[in-house]
Write a structure and sequence with these properties.
The structure holds three protein chains of three kinds. By secondary structure, chain A is an all-alpha fold. Chain A has helices at about 1-30, 40-80, 85-125, 125-130, 135-175, 180-190, 195-220, 225-260. Chain A contains eight helices and no strands. Chain B folds into three domains: about 1-30; about 40-135; about 135-325, no CATH class. Helices cover about 65% and strands about 15% of the residues of chain B. The chains are: A mainly alpha, B alpha/beta, C alpha/beta.
């Protein structure tokens, strides 16, 4: 009994959160097609989220490619299957690791950024000020940000994939004397549309999740500086969790479509 | 707030680069072609491609030189396989090269290998069609071979039986010669031997005939293979050996015949044999000769077994025997 | 317990002016916290009305209900003969162009320069000027009013608290509002800067003949600027009158304000 009493409010809170987030997403879809479009702000956010994340995504991708290859090499060597390295690394990066790592890194950088930014704007009444100025803050702040990250994340994933594969190639080149052509020949030989298309579609959902959760947490931020920190923190935590859920669903759905 | 010009440019650059990376990725995956290299295209026609797929490697003397770019059904029995070949390899492939389909190691990826021709033909050019050597074609050839080689197989097993019984019979020679029934058996065996040697001769004739026809008709793929490859030469020597050994058998046969006749015409066979040492000696040497001859024949047949053209047939035979043994 | 101190007749001529802003019987509660319990208020043309109350007494809530940032539970709010509670978004936005709002913490947009901050309200309210006036001249004029033309290309983070407040005032003024709502205009400022701001407010009122509603708990500010005052206590308009009249009252709750 005692346990249930303790857990129940938490479950209630969680359900309220999910419900509110759903409403928030619904509002996004209602407002995204309504005039006026904040095109300039969208471009600015695209630049902020896309270009400014490039270095981070590039470095993480490069290291992941490097590490993945280095770690797998001994095992494959044992089986005398080092020649399968490009295919293995290629498929795992394009299908799963690239989108997931990029999304998680962006959840950390962009999700928390959005949460903190909107949170502080809420706390310092900037959002109210916008509304009073006749600009719909939801449109100006939320729609542009969510749209920007939804559009930018797949591109970041592509770049991340490319850099990760290059990192993996470098290891193979130095350790196994594999040429650039051979490596990428083998990578592309092993890849199919069934690998790259679901991964790309998934990236759009990842981007949307990062944007919408960050905006949601920031937009409904509690008063005070503590609220801002909480908004940023919970944006990252919730987004990361959501990313895995989406990933699971995406893989599940892709499996049904491509295996049958 | 304002988007500065450099921001716009950088964003544009990022979007373009990202999109291009994606598009090229999709393109390469979609095409699965020999990327980064200039290629030219050649074709070959097959009756059966044994599961060859678009994107499988093309090998020339064991080197990957390109990929299969298309497999297309031309009619109910012809499949056009087109392949992209690295341009730099072009000078090494002659117009008389032959394309075959095989599998690549344990993994079982099919590969298309191009076997060099004689070397006197002109260099291949873009869009050319080269000869193919299809596995189904090999089967056809083998089936014509099998009619004649079937006889050889029966004969071989018969000879084996006889020789073993003869070798074992050395110790019981007295018994064998005393008993008329045994003598009858012996005669029967000799008759069999005769038949066998005749069979061998016909087989050899058939083989010869086939090979000469192949020689004459040099355009056929098998002709080329037989004329030019080492295996072809081996085949010829095998057939030559077969001929000599069967001739030997023939003479042995005649000897045995004479001996048996002698045995039959005399009354006390045993005494006769004991008395006539010369005959005993001759019988001994005859048997020895038979042994030798059959040994050689066995060797030849063994060689024939291992020859790549007839290998398949003998395997089949073995399997059949095993099946029957089970029954 | 509740005592209404309605002291009649204040400044000569004010009563004869038209009422630009009227709140009748306003109720607002957050859960069990009843913030406003039937608040009434009238603002006349050209008047400086100060509303005083303790922190958390519902002053900010009331003022946010006025511009439609919050929805009241009950009661009517009319701004220049328009009932705020029944207006649609578009009409509300048009009406908001006539109401200036100076937020408590200035609420300058952190990510924009001063110029962009001032431009922001003009984005949607261009109709008001029929595009006849160049935005640049409007911005410069607004900055001249607050004496900060040099700060035009600075970021808000580079400004002091007082400068921020002035820029915020300039931003409020740029749409030439008929009514200006000041939410704690002097909070967080040192007395000297606060005085400067008050002087600025008076100048502006003279120059543009605006009506002002000032929310404050700063007695000095109230004394200097107020034509009339309302004491907001326990969610109602506890006492109404001029500064002199109210400071003379013996009611302990009222006395508490003037003791400081």
């Amino acid at each position: 009994m005692f346990g249930i009493n303790k857990i129940k409010p938490r479950i209630d809170d969680f359900l309220v959160e999910i419900g509110a987030l759903s409403y928030f997403s619904g509002r996004f879809f209602r407002e995204v097609f309504k005039r006026p479009f904040e095109f300039k702000e969208l471009l600015r956010q695209c630049f902020n989220m896309g270009n400014r994340s490039l270095l981070l995504v590039g470095i993480t991708g490069f290291i992941i490619g490097l590490v993945l290859t280095l770690q797998t090499r001994p095992t494959l060597q044992e089986f005398g299957a080092v020649s399968w390295m490009p295919s293995m690394v290629g498929i795992s990066i394009v299908r799963e690791i690239g989108p997931m790592i990029t999304a998680l890194v962006c959840a950390g950088r962009i999700g928390s950024g959005i949460g903190a930014e909107l949170g502080s704007m809420r706390v310092t009444e900037q959002i109210d000020a916008m509304e009073v100025s006749g600009t719909n803050p939801f449109k100006y702040l939320v729609v542009t940000r969510v749209l920007a990250i939804t559009l930018m994340l797949p591109l970041l994933v592509v770049v991340g994939d490319a850099v990760a594969l290059y990192g993996s190639y470098l290891v193979e080149h130095l350790k196994g004397d594999v040429s650039f052509n051979l490596y990428f020949n083998q990578v592309f030989d092993s890849l199919e549309f069934g690998d790259i298309i679901p991964a790309t579609v998934k990236s759009f959902f990842f981007g949307f999740a990062i944007g919408i959760v960050g905006c949601f947490k920031g937009y409904y931020c509690n008063k005070g500086t503590e609220g801002v920190g909480k908004a940023a923190n919970s944006a990252v935590v919730f987004t990361s969790l959501l990313l895995f859920v989406i990933d699971f669903i995406a893989v599940f759905v892709a499996d049904i479509f491509y295996e049958l | 707030m304002k988007n500065t010009k450099s921001q716009k440019i950088r964003l544009g650059l990022f979007v373009i680069v990202g999109t291009m990376l994606f598009v090229t990725g999709v393109y390469f995956i979609g095409q699965r072609q020999n990327m980064f290299k200039k290629t030219f295209k050649i074709n070959a026609y097959f009756q059966n491609v044994n599961g060859l797929q678009k994107g499988n490697n093309v090998r020339y003397s064991g080197i990957n030189i390109g990929t299969v770019s298309g497999i297309e059904m031309i009619n109910d029995s012809t499949i056009k396989v087109s392949m992209n070949i690295e341009e730099k390899i072009i000078t090494h492939i002659k117009k008389d090269a032959i394309a075959t389909i095989g599998s690549d190691g344990l993994v079982g990826n099919m590969i298309l290998s191009i076997v060099p021709g004689k070397g006197s033909a002109p260099v291949i050019s873009n869009g050319d069609t080269i000869e193919s050597y299809s596995k189904i074609g090999a089967d056809d050839i083998l089936s014509t071979l099998s009619v004649s080689s079937e006889n050889a197989a029966i004969l071989m097993s018969d000879l084996l039986k006889i020789t073993t019984s003869m070798i074992e019979g050395k110790g019981t020679l007295g018994l064998l010669l005393n008993d008329t029934l045994m003598a009858k058996d012996m005669r029967q065996s000799v008759v069999n031997l005769k038949k066998i040697s005749r069979g061998v001769i016909t087989t050899i004739d058939e083989l010869n005939e086939m090979i000469t026809s192949l020689k004459k008709n040099q355009e056929t793929v098998l002709g080329v293979l037989l004329n030019d490859s080492i295996s072809g030469k081996k085949m010829k020597t095998i057939i030559g050996n077969l001929e000599t050994s069967s001739e030997e058998i023939e003479t042995i046969m005649a000897n045995i015949d004479a001996v048996i006749d002698d045995i039959n015409s005399s009354n006390g066979t045993f005494n006769y044999i004991v008395k006539d040492t010369a005959l005993v000696n001759s019988l001994k040497s005859t048997l020895h000769n038979i042994n030798e001859g059959t040994d050689k024949f066995n060797q030849n047949m063994e060689a024939l077994k291992h020859n790549f053209l007839t290998r398949r047939y003998f395997r089949k035979l073995e399997r059949k025997e095993r099946k029957e043994a089970k029954k | 317990m509740m005592v209404q101190h309605n002291i009649s007749a204040k400044k000569e001529g004010i009563e004869t002016q038209t009422i630009v802003l009227e709140i009748k019987d306003l109720y607002k509660s957050f859960g069990d916290n009843h913030v406003l319990n039937g608040f009434n208020m009238k603002l006349h043309q050209g008047e400086n009305l100060v509303i005083m109350g303790k922190s958390g007494s519902g002053k900010s809530v009331m003022i946010k209900c006025l511009v439609g940032l919050m929805e009241a539970d009950r009661g009517s709010i009319s701004v220049m003969q328009n009932d705020i509670t029944t207006l649609n978004q578009e009409a509300l936005d048009i009406l908001r162009a006539d109401i200036g709002f100076l937020f408590q913490g200035s609420a300058l947009y952190d990510s924009m320069t001063v110029r962009e901050n001032l431009e922001f309200p003009l984005r949607r309210h261009t109709k008001k000027f029929d595009g006849a006036i160049d935005t640049e001249t409007l911005i410069v004029e607004a900055l001249e009013n607050v004496g900060l033309v040099d700060a035009i290309d600075l970021m808000p983070s580079e400004l002091s608290g007082g400068m921020k407040r002035r820029i915020a005032l300039a931003r409020t003024l740029i749409l030439r509002p008929k009514i200006i709502l000041y939410d704690e205009p002097t909070s967080g400022l040192d007395p000297i800067t606060a005085k400067e701001i008050i002087i600025l407010m008076q100048d502006i009122q003279k120059k543009y003949n605006t009506s002002s509603l000032i929310i404050t708990h700063d007695v000095d500010c109230a004394r200097v600027i107020s034509d009339r005052m309302i004491l907001l206590i326990d969610g109602v308009d506890y006492a109404v009158g001029t500064f002199k009249e109210l400071s003379a009252l013996k009611d302990p709750k009222v006395r508490a304000f003037f003791k400081q």
